[in-house]
Amino acid sequence: MSEEKVLPTEEECCGLVMPISAIDGCNEQHWSDVKEILTESVESAGFKANLVSYADDVGIIQKRIIQNLYENPIVVCDVSGKNPNVMFELGMRLAFDKPTIIVKDDKTAYSFDTSPIEHLEYPRDLRFSKIVDFKEALKEKVKATLRKSREDPSYTAFLKHFGTFTVAKLDTKEVSKEDFIIEELRDLKKTVHRQAIMYNERLHSMEPALYGKYPSEKLHLEMRKLIKQAINDSSINFPVSKRNSPELKNMIYSQVMNSDKVKNYFAGPEEFDMVFHEVYQDLVA
After folding, report:
1. Which DSSP category does 114 fall into?
2. Are 81 and 124 in contact (CB under 8 A)?
3. Nearest-CA neighbor of 74 among 32, 16, 140?
4. What does residue 17 show for φ and ψ, rounded to 5 degrees?
5. What are phi and psi of 46, to 5 degrees?
6. 119: part of which helix (H) or strand (E)?
7. Predicted confidence (pLDDT) at residue 36 exceeds the cutoff of 50
8. Which of 149, 176, 224, 236 has the CA that lies 20 to 30 A from 13?
9. CA 123 remoteness from chain centre
10. How far apart are the C-alpha atoms of 26 and 123, rounded to whole Å?
11. Which of 69-83, 163-177, 226-240, 246-260 has maximum average pLDDT?
């Protein structure tokens, strides 16, 4: 079969599954940089790269993710940090037994269940020379995987290495425009209702004295303890001379933000930011 028949058409999309928020000591900007690296590599292979949660139209995000995981001809999954949502979406893609490429950074250990699958590795510090090699390797892997999946009738991404299985499929049906709109509105109503329930549960779980626009003195004290502990934990990698560096501040911010002990006390992210920066500046001054 010629290469023209196995390479993607202009319309084909490579789905991206990866962390997008702070996890494992890496902030949102780090994952934005990783996304740009993956996108450049995938596009150089001839694909349009999009997160599986992305769609041109407005719809229920869970439906969109599942639909893209099933329909995208190839998916690149970054399991760095072992984000639970990423691992779940990877499991779904493998259940569909469709072409999948797994990548991870050099600080993330292999997971037992997916360790038999080849992982392409990149440096967490994203140093240029190694990233150039990684991007080229990923580009070639995307093209080779697509080619094999289309040329080899017995191709399997994962499942058939372990036995004979019936691969999961999504049923499709044709509905009228009116029925489609009604179904989407019902789903949207359910989603809004679930969000309202979650908000009310969170609101009632907060300590009354700590809830509001301005945090209490107790919250400042708790924030101070957590920041001091996080700074002490990082003292090996960050000497006193670098305690006021943006890199350390971002790392401490991520650790404190992910603490269940503190984050439920705040009315919103603006309030959290205000207290964190006040307490942090006071500690490192």
Report:
1. T
2. no
3. 16
4. -120, 120
5. 100, 10
6. strand 119-122
7. yes
8. 176
9. 17
10. 13
11. 69-83
> How is residue 163 written in tokens?
């036995």
Secondary structure, 3-state, 36-56: HHHHHHHHHCCCEEEECCCCC
Judged by phi (left if over 0) then psi (alpha if -120 to 50, else beta), residue 171 lies in beta
Q: How far apart are CA 283 and CA 285, in angstroms?
A: 6
Please, what's the b/e burial string for 205-220 (b: 16 or more CB within 10 A of its CB; e: otherwise)? eeeeebbeeebeeebe
CB atoms within 10 A of CB 64: 17
Distance CA 53, CA 65 (A): 5
Q: What is the pLDDT of residue 176?
A: 67
**69-127 tens-digit pLDDT:** 988 999 999 999 999 889 989 888 888 888 999 999 999 999 887 878 889 999 999 99
Strand 74-78 relative to strand 119-122, pairing: unpaired
Separation of CA 51 from chain center: 9
Stretch 130-150: mean pLDDT, rounded?
A: 93
Rounded to whole angstroms, the Cα distance separating 125 from 217 reads 38
Sheet with 48-51: strands ordered across? 48-51, 13-17, 74-78, 100-105, 119-122
pLDDT at 195: 63
Q: Are 49 and 16 in contact (CB under 8 A)?
A: yes
- Residue 169 is which amino acid? K
Query: DSSP letter string over 242-272?
Result: GTT-HHHHHHHHHHHHT-HHHHTT-SSHHHH
Mean pLDDT of the region 251-263: 76
For residue 266, give both structure tokens.
């705040």
| CA neighbor of 107 nearest in space, from 89, 85, 126 | 126
Considering only CA atoms, give the Rg of the chain: 23
